[in-house]
Amino acid sequence: MSWTRGSRTVLAVCVLLLTGSAGCGSGEAREDGTRHVPVGSLLEDRDQEGRAYREVARRDAPDVGVEVQPGAAGGWDVRLTVRNFRFSPAGTAARAVAGRGLAWLYVDGRPVARLRAPEHRLAERLVPRGTHRVTARLHADDGTVWAVDGAPVESTADITASEPGPEPDPTPSTDVRRQARTHATDTPSRSMDTRSRITDTRSWMRGRGSPERVGKAS
User: Considering Cα of 103, then 100, then 80, then 215, what sign does the dihedral take?
Assistant: First the structure.
């Protein structure tokens, strides 16, 4: 009798241990039975829309560069270059997965588009006459902002839009084109690839990320 009771006790302990080990795993269960492991850590800092920053280690952090050029048919052509990052398609579950998500596009701090692809056409009406800052910021699929060292993963390019002048005289002596200059405002720890070209009404520039810091221009 004592042996039987002892065996049942041992069996009960084994069942409890197995149940406990299954219930103590980290992450939340998915529908397919696998578990989603949380990525990074949420910070108290938030962006202007109230979205929390999701801090990740620098070695695993995504990176982004932004290039803006005048479009041939009007507007502006925006192209993003990303590293350690993949764009998620529409309908992706709202959970943070390492190196996945979408990019938010801002003009002078105002959100104008959510991008699930590296290319976008920015409407001319969103960039009135003057100099403006176009920023691409990387977000996880749950809406949080990817961050490194407490700063968002983003890149910014300055563009200048000016009104077209009168049509020049087609003779060679008066066919003068205006030069538009571009510049970038960036943190000292980031390398920036800037260019300029001749254009009648608009300038373009490229902002480039760097793994030295958050990699993102302010």
Answer: positive
Answer whether 29's CB lies under 8 Å from 35's CB.
Answer: yes
Whether 80 and 64 have beta carbons less than 8 Å apart is answered as: yes
Distance separating alpha carbons of residues 190 and 149, to the nearest angstrom: 14
The two tokens of residue 147 are 């961050």
Question: How crowded is residue 92: how many other Cβ atoms within 10 Å of its Cβ?
Answer: 15
User: What ranges make up the beta strands (E) of the chain?
Assistant: 28-29, 35-36, 41-46, 52-55, 63-70, 76-83, 86-87, 100-107, 110-115, 119-122, 130-139, 145-148, 151-152, 154-161, 179-180, 197-198, 205-207
Lowest mean pLDDT among 82-96, 101-115, 157-171: 157-171
Render pLDDT for 38-51 as a digit per residue (tens, 0 to 9): 799 999 999 999 99
